Amino acid sequence: MEKQLVVSALAALAQETRLDVFQLLVRSGPTGLPAGTIGQRLGIPSATLSFHLKELKSAGLVRCERRGRSRIYSADFAAIRDVIAFLTSNCCRGIDGAMPAGEETCDLGADLDC
User: Fold this and answer.
1) What pLDDT digit, counting tens, does each position of 37-96 carry?
2) Cβ distance 75 to 61 under 8 Å?
3) Domain boundary assignment for the chain
C-alpha cells in the first residue's frame, strides 16, 4: 500500500464523527448498514452523515452499494488490513532491523479475523 493512501485513511479516521461511523460499520460486519440506520444510531443529521460517508469512501475505508432504493455502506476490511500491515511492516525489527532470535516475522495483528 502506498504511503499517501495510508495518510488519507488515517486523516479520514482522525475526525470524531467519521471514527464513530467507521467503528459502527466495522461492528455491523460485511453486510453493512443503510445510511438512514447509521444516522439514527449515531444521531447524525443526513446532510452531515452524507459528508462524512463521502470522506470515508474517498479514503478507501468504506464501500457503498445500492440495494433497491437504499444505499448500503460497509467497512472495507481489506483496506483497513492494508493500513495495519503498512503501519506494522517493520514491527519488532528494532533499530538495526533484526528480529529477536528464532523469530522471522512479527504477528502483531495476526488475530484480526473479520
Assistant:
1) 999 999 999 999 999 999 999 999 999 999 999 999 999 999 999 999 999 887 776 666
2) yes
3) 3-87
